[in-house]
Amino acid sequence: MSEARSFVPAAGRDWLLPLYDPLLRLLGEERIKGALFEAAEICPGQRVLDLGCGTGTLALLIRARCPEAQVVGLDPDPKALAIARRKAERAGVEIDWQQGFADDLPFEDASFDRVVSSLVFHHLPPDRVRATVPELQRVLKPGGSVWVLDFGAGGHHGLHGILAHLTSHQHGDEDVAEELPTLLGEAGLVDAEARPAGRTFMGSLVLTHAHAPG
Question: What is the strand order of the sheet 112-118 is part of?
Fold first, then answer.
């Protein structure tokens, strides 16, 4: 079952999860995720997948800025999803929270107009990134698009870069940020490109996007 698979918790260690939202606010999360929302051009009536939704901040932002969008948040971490559900309940917002993995999406083909992901891919080993990309292509509707915001080469790999010395968490994975547009193209998506998306104190950001033909 998927629950038995290993994954990296949002903050690197379960005991650090309460610090996750405060630290991302220090990173400038609202500005970063707001820019991702604007770039993805999410419209009323669209179905949007927040891949690796964590504690739900991006999914909630999408619903706040486009209330008519249908938002699904997917994450392997049940503890992060529990926080996301509580945040949505407090906001009075309906979001479909689901537990699952990026390389084995529990959705039908052509299910989404947009797939968005913020500061997630650096958590994934390269082989899992390469297994995830075909799944993104599979669940996109014709004409839909995927938008991935993450650290570029030389970034600090999310909260792990700050907390590794506290948690003894070793990332050790090769950087796939520069490879992602090629992987998206090889999976059958078109117009794949990556562009700079600003800097944070943890490193530079890159926004990568591609579209499904149609």
Answer: 96-99, 70-75, 47-51, 112-118, 140-151, 203-211, 190-200
- CA distance linking residue 212 with residue 118, whole number of Å: 20
pTM score above 0.70: yes
Q: What share of the chain is helix, strand, coil (3-state, %, to 5)?
A: 40, 25, 35
CA separation for the pair 68, 58 (Å, rounded): 15
Whole-angstrom distance, CA of residue 7 vs CA of residue 77: 8
Instruction: Give residue 167's Cα distance to chain centre.
Output: 23
Cα–Cα nearest to 11, from 27, 24, 30:
24
pLDDT in tens, 133-149: 999 999 999 999 999 99
Say how far apart CA 162 and CA 193 lie, in whole Å.
Answer: 29
Evaluate whether the domain defined by 2-211 bears CATH number 3.30.70.2860: no
Whether the pLDDT of residue 104 is over 60: the answer is: yes
Model pLDDT for residues 2-27, shown as the tens digit of each residue: 346 766 665 555 656 666 666 666 66
Which residues share a beta bridge with 147? 116, 209
Helices (H), ranges, 52-144: 57-65, 78-91, 126-139
pLDDT tops 60 at residue 171:
no
Question: Which of 177, 183, 186 has its CA nearest to residue 205?
Answer: 177
Give the closest residue to 119 by CA, choosing from 148, 141, 90.
148
**CA–CA distance, 172 with 186 (Å, rounded to integer):** 25
